[in-house]
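Chain A, query sequence.
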Amino acid sequence: MAVDLDGPEPLYEQIATLLAARIADGTYPPRRRVPSEADIVSEFGVSRPTARAAVRLLVERGLVVTVRGKGSYVVDAQA
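Chain A, predicted structure.
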């Protein structure tokens, strides 16, 4: 799945959906880091605020928790 720069969906939603799919398929396992904002900027060619919004959406969906100074981690569904 690629980000559609010309599509109607906001880029941050597309990126969050793609990262959520990676969480679901085990690419990012529970209690492990998801890509940093800088990594998202680099991979998808988007601005830092867009990357931040994508991570924030994952937090709102309960898929990721952000630890200040450490990064964002996949929530452990077993906890």
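The first helix runs from residue 11 to 24. The mean pLDDT is 93.
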